Q: What sequence folds into this?
């Protein structure tokens, strides 16, 4: 019984770790994609409608900011869960991976 519980915790820990890595990837890749999209938009138009391009990039940036805040809050909840449930008897405090 205890071995099944340990295997379950290990699998849960690995899944949560993978979710944290995915969240970190999104946080860093999305702003780069928005900047690349803006650069491509400037290069594609000979006489670009800068206002429309500016509004589109601004909308994407605001959406990305909201998305990033949501991901960081989710990551904080995952870390808290790991600390409180999966590693309650850890000798040292979690300082990051």
A:
């Amino acid at each position: 019984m205890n071995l099944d519980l340990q295997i379950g915790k290990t699998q849960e820990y690995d899944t949560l770790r993978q979710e944290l890595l995915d969240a970190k990837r999104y946080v860093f890749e999305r702003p780069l994609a928005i900047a690349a999209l803006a650069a491509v938009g400037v290069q594609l138009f000979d006489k670009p409608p800068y206002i429309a391009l500016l509004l589109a990039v601004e909308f994407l940036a605001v959406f990305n900011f909201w998305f990033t805040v949501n991901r960081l809050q989710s990551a904080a909840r995952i870390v808290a869960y790991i600390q409180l449930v999966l590693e309650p008897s850890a000798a040292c405090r979690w300082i990051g991976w």
Q: What stands out?
A: The helical segments are 2-44, 50-86.
